[in-house]
Amino acid sequence: MFPITFKEFKSLFKSIRSIIIIIVIFGTTLGIAKLVSNFKEQLEQFGLGENTYAGGAMIMILFAGHLFVASLSHNIINQEITSRTIRFIATKTSRNNIIIGKFLGITLFWTVCLFINFLLIIPFSKTFYFSDFLQSLIFICYFIGLTILLSTIISRPALTMFIGITLSIIMTILGFWSIASDNIYLKIYSYLTPYFYYSQQNLIYPYLVLMFPILFLILSLLIMRKRDL
């Protein structure tokens, strides 16, 4: 499992895309921090903290983190199946280890990316906001789990790219809409997205989102066991 984890991590980090992502997140964080400095009360209602730089980082992740995950890892499983390399991997380890190893590899990559971003804003924020870092990572983990599930269900890599990005955009729009809406169906839907939990003032709520990537991972494992390689 861990060899798969580190292989996935290194393959993501060797790409120029990782550097671009760090630069984009850092630059956008600073830009958003300047724009939202006049909206501290609204930020606090969404659980984004009192510091504008930590709030800027959280807003960046809430609005674009899922797009980064989908664009980088949409074919994490089905590409291996399409190229038939998964048959070779499956002779060395179990299917469960393949799924879990890839999940951990992507999570490790995003942990490093977000950690570097929060380190880079220390000269501006004057401190390292560990709680905001953890909440950002948990939000990303939701979409890592969802991306792996989609890649396990859908066999065509190009299709998962389209569906992953489209679904992420729709989920974001409906997620924020459901927070402000009184529609019963949107309210029920809101409990299935991370946006509801991040909109609560209680700081414990964002950590409840962890149950979703675990659920997505379990579903992926069950589907992978029955999948013909």
From TrEMBL:
Keywords: Membrane, Transmembrane, Transmembrane helix. It comes from Gracilibacillus halophilus YIM-C55.5. This is Membrane protein. GO terms for cellular component: plasma membrane. The keyword Transmembrane applies. The chain crosses the membrane at residues 12-33, 53-77, 98-121, 133-154, 161-180, 204-224. The keyword Transmembrane applies. GO terms for molecular function: ABC-type transporter activity.
